[in-house]
């Protein structure tokens, strides 16, 4: 699977030239130089955009490690004052645990529920299929922010206010429609004949799915799962509204408290920001290659 | 879900395959369906219901059926509704247009083959994973008047000391716009780059042979190929930018002087801080209808999916 992915990734550039025999070398060279964008047209805008992207990250890192009162633009000498302050005094240790818990649970529930729903949409014809699809699409237009008050009442009635479960449910629900649409796209790309041959060999539908389809869904599952994790890690309003006890809050709420403090402690704020950024940036660095293939497979028309 | 529960499973093996598939799809969508009924459909219906009610926790003696009073108040008395709606429109259009243009350019650049492509992609896409609150955090560090970048510019002789971009009504819109662009452009770039992977190489080669230059190939092959992806991405992003309150709530708090209050922010203030839930529900309903109407018009005008089927 990973080999197939690698081919697909590099296919745009290296594929043809590697496969072709050498003879038309001269012609190809001329063709390529005619085709190619001049290097400076590539590197100059890319460089400018990279600066725009990276300076804010650097700025946050700089503020988080330089001692209070320093105006140096180089992160040296370093201090971990701000980190230990935020981690211990401002309870970011607890927020971090809560955020990880919410993120992982949302990832698992979203992926499982979306797999089931996506499989139904990809492989069956049934009466409420079209209404169900329509409901999925329409729900994209419904702002979670505007449903805060009724959602709050529901969770109050379920006695789930101040429990992380309420946030996990809310995140899962609003993550589901897109996840189902994406996953059903991926499943549709797996030829049904593969599964059918597994049934002929005596597998049940479930076993056949696990053995044949699931391994081929890896890029899709990575895309959907990472979406769910990153979104729930980042999302702020549900946690802000449903979790009022401090030891239940998540990282974004903690950051918001730091922003809203009477005299903003910029060093502490930056350190909190770094703590919030590190997990998602790491997850992102690993998945970004799959993200592109994931999207192109999921967005196949039809 | 209205399906009869699976009480007796027929024990005969041969029947299993023909009998289960009829129930199976319903069982499979049941978890998703129930969750969405309970936590999306029901709240939506209750919003519609409360939009016709006077419902205010702090003034319980006035609670009760209100007819269309709330809606009348929105359209005739409420200046803040119109100003926040106007700001929302300005915000959404600015964001979507700039994010699309920059994202398209970025996708075309990192779709080329060059040394360091992988790492460049990872770096330029990375703000995609950053939250609204974290974006606010970062840009507050950059914008603040005492140690933000304006101070270093002033040290170098550009601009003045003490410039605070976020508390000046003249600069706050663009300050917030740049911050949102920083995290929004990668979304478009990722989607468009994904769609670029499926442009057929043969088409480009044929066009090159026929003497089409880079510009013509872009406008006649690449852009038409990307059309559906662009329409869908702009629509989803437009709705998302309209609804999302994280960034503005934490970066500007809707200020200064209500200058950056979007309609959803106004609704949240009315419903949650003002406790006027009936009126907030009516505002929500209006926002929802406007959003739906704009989306349908947009899809019609752009002839989405017109080529297929």
UniProtKB/TrEMBL annotation, chain A:
Residues 1-32 are annotated as: Disordered. PROSITE patterns: ABC_TM1 (PS50928). It comes from the Bacteria. The chain crosses the membrane at residues 40-61, 100-122, 134-152, 164-187, 208-233, 266-287. It is a multi-pass membrane protein. Its main location: membrane. Gene3D superfamilies: MetI-like. Keywords: Cell membrane, Membrane, Transmembrane, Transmembrane helix, Transport. Residues 96-287 form the ABC transmembrane type-1 domain. It is found in: Cell membrane. PANTHER family: INNER MEMBRANE ABC TRANSPORTER PERMEASE PROTEIN YCJP (PTHR32243:SF18), MALTOSE TRANSPORT SYSTEM PERMEASE-RELATED (PTHR32243). Belongs to the binding-protein-dependent transport system permease family. This is Carbohydrate ABC transporter permease. It comes from Streptomyces gossypii.
UniProtKB/TrEMBL annotation, chain B:
The keyword Transport applies. Residues 85-298 form the ABC transmembrane type-1 domain. Pfam families: BPD_transp_1. InterPro entries: MetI-like, MetI-like_sf. Keywords: Cell membrane, Membrane, Transmembrane, Transmembrane helix, Transport. It is a multi-pass membrane protein. The chain crosses the membrane at residues 24-52, 89-110, 122-142, 172-194, 277-299. The keyword Cell membrane applies. It is found in: Cell membrane. PANTHER family: BLR7065 PROTEIN, INTEGRAL MEMBRANE SUGAR TRANSPORT PROTEIN. Belongs to the binding-protein-dependent transport system permease family. This is Sugar ABC transporter permease.
